[in-house]
TrEMBL record, chain A:
GO CC annotation: plasma membrane
UniProt keyword terms in alphabetical order: ATP-binding, Cell membrane, Membrane, Nucleotide-binding, Transport
Source organism superkingdom: Bacteria
Protein name stated in the entry: ABC transporter ATP-binding protein
InterPro entries to which the protein is assigned, alphabetical: AAA+_ATPase (IPR003593), ABC_Ni/Peptide_Import (IPR050388), ABC_transporter-like_ATP-bd (IPR003439), ABC_transporter-like_CS (IPR017871), P-loop_NTPase (IPR027417)
Organism: Marinitenerispora sediminis
Automatic annotation (TrEMBL), chain B:
Stated family: Belongs to the binding-protein-dependent transport system permease family.
Cellular localisation: Cell membrane
The protein, known as: Peptide ABC transporter permease
UniProt topology in membrane: Multi-pass membrane protein
C-alpha cells in the first residue's frame, strides 16, 4: 500500500436500522490490486458493509453515517444519481447465489449489454466489450446467448465477474461468492479473482464466513464480530498467529482433511 | 411441439362436443315450441306438426344431436328459426364486430393495465398504489351494464361527444363503402385508408370498448403489481440495482419481464370473460354483434342459433387458450411443451 490514497477507505462507518446499530467500522481500507477478506459469522455485518459501499443499504431501510471514500470520492450522502453512475462502472457486485443472479427469462448477455449501454452509451463496441470480458473470465462468448438455467453456477458466477470487467469496475464486492458452489468450482473462482488482481490490478472486497477460502486468496483479512472489526492483518500472519480469541475460534472451526480439528 | 398441439386439438374437439350436447339438452328442457316460432302465430296445429317434422324436431334428441354434429362438421350449423338464414352465415357476419369489441377491450387493458401495475409497484403503499388499487376494485366489480349506462348517459347523452349506439353511421356507409379485408371494420377502414369510415367506426366503438376494458385493465394492473412486487426481493433484482440501473428501469425493463407469462395466461381468461361481458354491453349500445344476436335468439327459443352462438364462443375460447399456451413457451425459455 504505497499509494497515497487507497481505492476504498472506510472511516467511522455506522450502519443502523432504527436504534439498532449493525455495523460500526472505525477504519477499513482496500488498496488497488488487493483482495481484502471480510470474515465473521452470520449477522456480523459483513454483507451489510458491502451493501453500504454499493450505496444500497439506504434503500434497504438503513441509516448510514461516517465516511466511505472510493478513489477519493465520498459516497456517504452522495446523491442517488451519482451513486447510480458509480454502481456498475466503478464497483460491481458478485452475488452470493449465482443461480438467482440473472433474470431467468433473459439471456445473460442481454443484462450485460443493457448495462454496457447504460454506462457507456449505445455503440457497436458494446458486444465486443462483452465478448472480450467473457474471454477474460475463461468463458466462451457464445455463453452470452444462453439463459441462466442453461449455465452452471460456476459459469454464472464468472459471467457476473465478466459483467464487472466489461463495465470497467475497479472494485468487486463479492458477497459470499463461493458459498453456493461446490469445492472445485470454488477453487476456480478464487483462482480467477487472484489472476484478475495480479494482471489487472482489480480490487476485491471478499465477504465470507469461510476462513479457509479467505486464507488461500486474500492479501489481508479483517475479522468482524457484532458489527466491528476486531482484527485486520495480512492473511498469512492472521492465520499463523491469531491475536483474538474469536479469530482462534473461527480458525478452529475450519475443517481439515486427514485429521481431527485442532482444539 | 407438434404432438403437443395435436393432443391439445384433440382434447379441444372433445370439449366442443360436450358444449354442443349440453346446450342442446338444456335448450330442449326449456318449455316452448320452436316450431311455433317458425310457423308463425297464426299457423294451424297441422302446419306446426308439418314444420316440426320438417325441422326434425319430432325425432329423439340424441338423433338430432348426432345430425347436428355431422352438420357442423360439414359447415351446416342449421337454419335459424328467427331469421330463417343459415346460422353460420349469421354468426360469421356478426363475429367481426364482437371480436373487434373484445380485442379493443383487451388492448386497452394491456396498454393501461401494465403501466398502472408498474406504477403501483414502484410506489408501493404510497398514493399512486392506493389510487391504482382503488380504481381496480371499481373496475373489476362494477357491473358492465351499469358502467355502460353511465358512460352512455354522460358522454353521449349529456356532452354529446360520442354516438349513443350502433356500429357506424349508416348514411356514411352508403357514401364510403367499407371494403372487406380482415372483416374487422376498424382494421379494414384503416388499411384501405377509408378515413371517414374509420372515424365513424372508432367513435362508435370507443364507449363500448371502454366499458369492456374496465375488467381487463383492473385485473391486469393487479397482476402486474403483485408479480413485480413478488420479484423485488430476488437476487437478480438486487444485481441490476447494483449495476446502476434506476428503479424505473429495474421494474420496467427487468422485473416486469417475469410477469409477461402470467399476464398472457390471464389474457385467455379475460378473452372468455369479455366475450360474455360484451353480450350485455352490445345490448346497451345496440351494437350488432354476437351478444345481441344471442339475446334475440334466446327470447324466441331459436335453438339452432343458441347452440350455434354457444359453440362458436366455446371454440373461440378454446382457440385463445391454445394460442396462449403456444406463445407461452416462446416467452419463457424454461418451459418446454410436452
Amino acid at each position: 500500500m504505497s499509494t497515497a490514497e487507497p481505492l476504498l477507505a472506510i472511516r467511522d462507518l455506522r450502519v443502523s436500522f432504527g436504534e439498532r446499530t449493525q455495523v460500526e467500522l472505525a477504519e477499513l481500507t482496500l488498496g488497488a490490486g488487493e483482495i481484502l477478506g471480510l470474515a465473521g459469522e452470520s449477522g456480523a455485518g459483513k454483507s451489510l458493509t458491502g451493501l453500504a459501499v454499493l450505496g444500497l443499504a439506504r434503500r434497504a431501510g438503513a441509516t448510514v453515517t461516517g465516511s466511505i471514500r472510493l478513489a477519493g470520492e465520498e459516497l456517504v450522502g452522495a446523491p442517488e444519481r451519482r451513486l447510480r453512475l458509480l454502481r456498475g462502472s466503478t464497483m460491481a457486485l458478485i452475488p452470493q447465489s449465482p443461480a438467482g443472479a440473472f433474470n431467468p427469462v433473459l439471456p445473460v448477455g442481454t443484462t450485460v449489454l443493457r448495462a454496457l449501454r447504460l454506462h457507456r452509451g449505445a455503440g457497436a463496441t458494446a458486444r465486443e466489450r462483452a465478448e472480450s470480458a467473457m474471454r477474460r473470465v475463461w468463458l466462451d462468448p457464445e455463453h452470452l446467448a444462453r439463459y441462466p438455467h442453461q449455465l452452471s453456477g460456476g459459469q454464472l458466477q464468472r459471467v457476473a465477474i465478466a459483467l464487472g470487467l466489461a463495465l470497467g469496475a475497479q472494485l468487486l464486492i463479492a458477497d459470499e461468492p463461493t458459498s453456493a458452489l461446490d469445492v472445485t468450482v470454488q477453487a476456480e473462482i478464487c483462482k480467477l479473482l487472484a489472476e484478475l488482481r495480479d494482471k489487472e490490478e482489480m480490487s476485491v472486497l471478499f465477504v465470507s464466513h469461510d476462513l479457509a477460502v479467505l486464507a488461500g486468496l486474500c492479501d489481508r483479512i479483517a475479522v468482524m464480530r457484532a458489527g466491528r472489526v476486531i482484527e485486520a492483518r495480512p492473511a498469512g500472519e492472521l492465520v499463523a498467529d491469531p491475536r483474538e480469541d474469536y479469530t482462534r475460534e473461527l480458525l478452529a472451526a475450519v475443517p481439515r482433511l486427514g485429521g481431527a480439528t485442532h482444539a | 411441439m407438434i404432438a403437443y398441439t395435436a393432443r391439445r386439438l384433440g382434447l379441444s374437439a372433445l370439449v366442443a362436443l360436450g358444449v354442443v350436447v349440453l346446450t342442446f339438452v338444456i335448450a330442449r328442457l326449456v318449455p316452448g315450441d320452436p316450431a311455433a316460432g317458425w310457423a308463425g302465430p297464426r299457423a294451424s296445429p297441422e302446419e306446426r306438426a308439418r314444420v316440426r317434422e320438417e325441422l326434425g324436431l319430432d325425432r329423439p334428441t340424441h338423433e338430432q344431436i348426432i345430425d347436428y354434429v355431422g352438420g357442423v362438421l360439414r359447415g351446416d350449423w342449421g337454419i335459424s328459426v328467427r331469421t330463417h338464414r343459415p346460422v353460420l352465415d349469421d354468426l360469421l357476419s356478426l363475429l367481426p364486430n364482437t371480436l373487434q369489441l373484445v380485442l379493443a377491450g383487451l388492448l386497452i387493458g394491456l396498454l393501461v393495465g401494465v403501466p398502472a401495475g408498474l406504477l403501483a409497484a414502484r410506489w408501493h403503499n404510497r398514493l399512486p398504489d392506493v389510487l391504482v388499487r382503488s380504481a381496480a376494485i371499481v373496475g373489476a366489480s362494477m357491473p358492465v351494464f351499469w358502467l355502460a349506462l353511465l358512460l352512455q348517459t354522460f358522454f353521449a347523452g349529456q356532452l354529446r361527444l360520442l354516438p349513443v349506439a350502433g356500429s357506424w353511421d349508416a348514411d356514411m356507409l352508403a357514401q364510403y363503402p367499407l371494403a372487406k379485408v380482415t372483416g374487422l371494420p376498424l382494421v379494414d377502414a384503416l388499411v384501405t385508408g377509408n378515413w371517414p369510415m374509420l372515424a365513424s367506426v372508432f367513435d362508435h366503438l370507443l364507449l363500448p370498448a371502454l366499458v369492456v376494458s374496465a375488467y381487463p385493465v383492473a385485473v391486469i394492473a393487479r397482476l402486474v403489481r403483485a408479480s413485480v412486487l413478488d420479484t423485488l426481493g430476488e437476487t437478480h433484482i438486487q444485481m441490476v440495482r447494483s449495476l446502476g440501473f434506476a428503479e424505473r428501469a429495474v421494474l420496467g425493463r427487468f422485473a416486469v419481464r417475469l410477469s409477461w407469462n402470467p399476464v398472457l395466461q390471464l389474457c385467455a381468461l379475460i378473452f372468455g370473460y369479455s366475450l360474455v361481458n360484451s353480450f350485455l354491453v352490445e345490448a346497451v349500445f345496440n351494437y350488432p354483434g354476437l351478444g345481441r344476436y344471442a339475446a334475440n335468439s334466446a327470447t324466441v327459443l331459436d335453438v339452432p342459433a343458441i347452440v350455434g352462438v354457444t359453440l362458436l364462443v366455446a371454440l373461440l375460447y378454446i382457440a385463445a387458450n391454445l394460442i396462449v399456451d403456444l406463445v407461452h413457451a416462446a416467452l419463457d425459455p424454461r418451459i418446454r411443451l410436452r
